[in-house]
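re: ur question from yesterday

yeah so i grabbed the chain u mentioned. its 430 aa long if i counted rite. heres the sequnce exactly as i have it in my notes:
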Amino acid sequence: MDMMQGKYNQWSPWGKLKTCMLGSFYPPEFFNAIEEDNIRTCMQRISEETLEDLENFHKVLLDFGVDVHRTQTNPNDSIDRYIIDGEVNYINPFNRVRTVPRPPLQCRDSARVIGDKLYITHGDHADIFRVLDNYNKKDQVILDFELDNLDQEQKDKLYEVYYYTRRTKDWPPLEEIDSSRLIHLNSMTQMEVEYFRKYARQSMVHLLKAPCITLVGKDLYLEGALFDLVEFKNIDFGTDLRFNIVNMGGHSDGCFAPLKPGALMVVQDTSLYEESFPNWDICHLPNSSKSSDMAAFFHESKAWIGGRWYIDGKINPELIAFVDKYMVECTGFTMETNFDVNCLVLDENHVVVSNLIPKVAEFFKKHKIEPIVVPFRHRHFHDGGLHCITLDLYREEDKVDYFPERTSPVDNHTVYEKIRRGFKWNLKNG
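ran it thru and got these structure tokens back, copy pasting raw so excuse formatting
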């Protein structure tokens, strides 16, 4: 372990994992100040069970020989620091949403390792960067893209794509909205359209986000419809990589999971991956609306919550109103994925999953992969799975060209028009 302490290294999702980060969540005491019993007890249960699952996950990683670096929350912090006189007294500095701060749970959302460097794509909880700086600050690269670097035509296009990649079926077409209409931005919080117009155009927009990057040897898969706005080949990653564009409409680890050479799990149509991963064996999972790991209660409650989040057990209207008003940064839009695909590969023969359905079990057996089941009970509340709450820092591996026959990068924009028309997610059954 000492030889790799403070070093970054990753070339694939399956090199033997030796060092990683693991996130954390607010302790039950954080919610003590909530006066309503039915809200406080529920939030404390989420906290207790989330922390239990994180500790269990931590132990599994240690037993496998992984050096784990944990984020922490301030033990003296309390929700009443942020909610004063019924209003949130805190504004997220990165997206300007008024909300209780996001906990340091999903540490993969802001950074990822490519080769021997850590690339930071956007801001997050300060403790995530404390852990990273303590581990190795010297080999970090910050990737920022500002709208000032784009001309007006590109800015207009960016705004259009930004709107449609976040649009749900309840949103009107872009040309029909006006300043008086309220919408759900990213299905997290109500915001006036005028606010959206202002900040979608004028604020810093990080076009390249860490969870939208998948590295498989010499092939870097960049996820998202925004990538045609920037010449990403000009980004200095310090190595010879092929830049492949695969527009799936979301975080890569919510769409597909390379498990080992030749084996892939996906939630989208398998045809979308034929060019990106030619001749690979693909296990197709149903979208979350039909996922077998979801309780029947979800299908009853999602009508209230719009598929943004859910928890097992009784959900009351007061809890929904509280979470949607004060804790929009702690939830997301869980209907856009199936968390069975959001797994952490330890090596080519061991994969940690939060749930194991028969189809996946058979696929693993076929490819001689041993599943390690680690429950993460509130992944549909946090909108994040086991892959989201970890960050690979060091994998024991070298760079390999897994597609030596590839003469040119993949440039797959087939999903863009679907996104543009507002069909980002399969909501037919939702």
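noticed a couple things. The two ends are 47 Å apart (CA to CA). also The first helix runs from residue 37 to 63.
anyway ttyl
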